[in-house]
Amino acid sequence: MNDIMARNNVKVMGEGDRTIIFAHGFGCDQSMWQYITPSFANNYRIVLFDYVGSGSSDLSAYTTEKYSQFTGYVQDVLDIIEVLELSNVIFVGHSVSSMIGMLASIERPDYFDKLIMIGPSPRYLNDGDYVGGFEESDITELLDMMEMNFTGWASFMAPLAMNHPDLPNLTQELEQSFISTDPVIAREFAEVTFLSDHRKALSESTVPTLIMQCSDDSIVPIEVGEYLHSHLKNSTLRLMEAKGHYPHISHPEETIALINEYLE
Asked: Taking every annotated instance into account, which residue ranges of this chain make up the domain AB hydrolase-1 (predicted)?
């Protein structure tokens, strides 16, 4: 048990009969939830964690064999649920975590009550009629940049993803988060994320799902939210006023309100 708790730097807080697991996105860690978790701590038990390679996780637990595909991250989520003996979990996943949570729920639907996806995408690459937002050359360029100049990549990517020139402190916070991750692990996680394709798995997902799609998101275009909604049974799509890819940081009030509304 202690191995898993330490490996993923698991933190449990709050009080309530129902449990919310908050799962961070690529290049981030559990601290990214700091603006919204206080609003849920009185009514829910909250579980926070860092993926291996992020935040204060145990970096020595990272192996390319395990984490070069989503199954490694999915297994870690299931491990956390099992070690804490959780059931009826409300899983809130940002970005790549939306698909990690969905795949975990396909494997063990009995563990999950609801999925809440913030800025999710089953496929980041354009593919025929499918609009994912990126060409393969864009991703290759991004991965090369991460390898050659990691700090330069972080300062290029943060303002693009945050999309809030009026709030430079938030962009700075995100850039710091990017820079603090291990460059080799971050690049491998980026590759797993941006080159993945989970469209076929959507039909296997049965857990009720809220899709929170940001307006003007440079990472996930609106078409992706609509595609997910049309392919996920039991799904609700909410188009947010929030711009950018990190509404839980830039627009915590709207994020909290939509989650609460869905859970009630």
From this structure: 20-257
